[in-house]
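Dear colleague,

Following up on yesterday's call, I've attached the two folding results inline so they're easy to grep. Please treat them as preliminary; we haven't cross-checked anything against experimental data yet. The first protein's sequence and structure tokens come first.
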Amino acid sequence: MEQVITIQSSQVELSATLHLPQHRSPGSKFPLVIICHGFVGNRIGVNRLFVKASRQFAAHGLAVLRFDYEGCGESFGEYGSYGLDRFIQQTKDVIDYAEGIRQVDQDQIFLLGHSLGGAIATLTASQDQRIKGLITWAAVGHPFHDIVKIVGKEKVQEYLSHPYVDYEGFALTKRFFDSLAEYSPMEAAKLFSGDVMVLHGSHDEDIPVDYCTQYHHTFKRGKSKSCVKEVISGADHTFSSVQGSNHLYGSTLEWLQSHTKKSNQSDYRVI
């Protein structure tokens, strides 16, 4: 079952889609994966990355909630007018909403973040003990450096003499860029005490594949229960090939299955 919903975050309405396993009995509860999209992205993803992942996970007994950050996709607001603090708060508000979904096992909530969403998921998980596990796909490691590289250094200089930088129709303000420099997800990773999986494409031209190893080492040195990493051969930043995306979904699903527990209900199972 797929349901389009609206989640309130402060004064902004966030658009989201909830996926629940088709075969369930009254009272069934399932682990939940919350998907955090990347920079100027949305809950559909490039080449429907998040739609395909969500449907595959739901087909194997997992609930999924994917949402649009403020000013992205179908959500209200203006993306780029606020800082990373708002991204983190919006993610926490989505977790609050998820806790109220009767089919969700509140002890089994996972965050999955892609690109900048991977950094936001890491920052959020480091602060929120409700998160059991964390999955990052091609995660940004140094928000200011990485996003400036994507936007272009010369273009970013525009905010020194203009109110915003126009990037693909998004008005990115000085507040937005300044906030990127204030956060270090690599440092925050040390504080997360749950289980972690870090994935990256070997042919990522946007975010260095070396970040995969750096994140892995940081999580291992920190408080995490466990951390595994995988570099997917030939995959780009958005895992846009059939082989790359299928490998991504398969590895992620296998990890999720190994880190979810069965409930006391006889009808609940992760296949």
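Below is the second protein, in the same order (sequence, then structure):
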Amino acid sequence: MMPATEPELRASFVNCSKGEAKRLSVPRDLAQQPWADLDFLGWLEPGAPERAYLVADRAGELLGVALRSAAAQAHRPTMCTFCLTTHPGSGVALLTARKAGASGREGNSVGTYLCSDLACSLYVRGLKAPPRGGRLKESLSVEDQIERTRSNVLSFLERVLES
């Protein structure tokens, strides 16, 4: 992912108002993000862990979505649908995004199970290890796993954009 600035991130959100995008917290350490190792930038709202944000590069443009996390309920290992990393307990959360446009204003949303810390890119590359969970041994190369993760992210974002 290419480095992004705070104004670029805020302007990328498609499923919240401009006012909401202006008020959301953006990571303070943007300059220190491992941009070359990110398939998307994901973060949690400080003090409100039920709110999360995801911004990805889609065809050369940033596309951001605001997410809500369901209450943690998993007591068994669960797998992330983006990176296929298995986490114990609350390491994977159901995150939902209000759909973009009129459909979202009518209350429609889409959801998926994701690593609750949104560090999918780092797990796929072996730069971060899940606590007591794991990544399945795969016959795919790391490059193919990265491409699959990117494809899964973009598929989710397309579902958010569908009317």
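For the second protein, one point worth flagging: The helical segments are 6-11, 18-23, 101-105, 120-124, 142-161.

Best wishes,
A.L.
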